[in-house]
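Suppose a colleague, Dr. K., hands you the sequence of a protein chain of 73 amino acids and asks what its three-dimensional shape might be. Before reaching for any lab equipment, you can write down a predicted structure in token form. Begin with the sequence itself:
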Amino acid sequence: MCVKPSDVKAGECYRTANNWVRQVENIEEGKVRYRSRGTQDQPGWTTSGLVQFQKLSLFAYDVVEAVPSNWEP
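The predicted structure, expressed as tokens, is then:
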């Protein structure tokens, strides 16, 4: 199941089906800027210089639900 693009909000965290957590920094011109954090095998957020960008519709398709920033599987 995916999240609706209209439900994706800056400052919120979302998990992917493989349990990565993505924290949305901002949404501009239909693109999401986010940091990601892996599971216990790959802990820690990406550094601020290594943010990722993705088209909003694809970001929403890739995530399955909103979660707290400290969410663990």
